[in-house]
Amino acid sequence: MDVIWQALSLDALPYLIAAVIAAGIVRGFSGFGTAMVYMPIAAIFLEPIHAMLTMMTFDLFGPIALMPRAWRDGEPKDVGVLGLGALVALPIGVYFLTRMDPIVFRWIVSILSLVLLILLASGWRYRNPLRTAGTLCVGLVSGFLSGIAALPGPPVILSYMSSPRPVSVIRGNTMMYLFLVDILAFIVFALKGLLVFVPLVIGAILTVPYGIAGLIGQRIFNPAHEVVYRTIAYAMIAFSAIAGMPIWG
User: ∠41-167-148 over CA atoms, to 5°?
Assistant: First the structure.
């Protein structure tokens, strides 16, 4: 009970709830963006590993209700290849994370979010069709970014948006992959002895608003208005990345 009280009495909890609701809505209608919305804000109030643990928890359990549709729409075999690459590189990213100053972490998260957002919004894509080896390399990059800054999604999105896949398939693949990466991250953190109970409880609390927000986002998602949803997602990501920069204090 003391641990639960510590989690509930966290002064920053309202800010984390607001961030997770925004992240859930974006994730529900775009299939990605959770970390790019949530992590810059969480890093203001929590130390790096604790911020990542909260996100890993709600990002694992919150989207469970979205997985059946993602499985139907997506390509599980392709997601498995991405996951194999992530499994190799994720522990390397975690190694650097454990040796990182919190201020440096905030800069890395915010700058990476902005750079990846600019790449997404600019229309830049890797134009060559990805075969198995290329998909594996994308998983490696994504896994490393997941371990060091909890940002596994953008490399996958950049590669998928270069393909002729329908929006619904890209969305399904991305959601399945991010779910898989969270499982792998938990395993790596557990093996390295990095699991801390209070952040896990905070993440469990955030699971409820995140899950509800994700369902709302999925409900309002309409492929015919993809540009509108993408613009809203980009605006939310930009706000979080800028707000999370250490220049504000």
Answer: 35
First to last CA, the chain: 33
The model's pLDDT over 141-194, given as tens digits with 9 standing for 90+, comes to: 999 999 999 888 878 888 877 677 777 888 888 889 988 999 999 999 999 999
SS3 of residue 167 by DSSP = helix
Cβ within 8 Å of residue 70, ≥6 positions away: 31, 171, 172, 173, 175, 176, 179
The 10s digit of each residue's pLDDT in 66-99 is 788 888 888 889 899 999 999 999 999 999 999 9
For 167, phi and psi rounded to 5 degrees? -60, -40
172, amino acid identity: G
- Total number of domains constituting the chain: 1
* CB contact at 8 A, 189 and 90: no
* Alpha-carbon gap, residue 178 to 30, rounded angstroms: 13
Rounded Cα gap, residues 69 and 178, in angstroms: 14
- Amino acid in position 157: I
Q: Residue 129 carries which DSSP code?
A: P
Structure tokens at 230: 């993408």
For helices 48-61 and 34-45, the axis angle rounded to 10 degrees is: 140
Domain of 223 in residue numbering reads as 2-248
Distance (Å, rounded) from C-alpha 147 to C-alpha 126?
23
Report yes or no: 150 and 97 within 8 Å, Cβ to Cβ: no
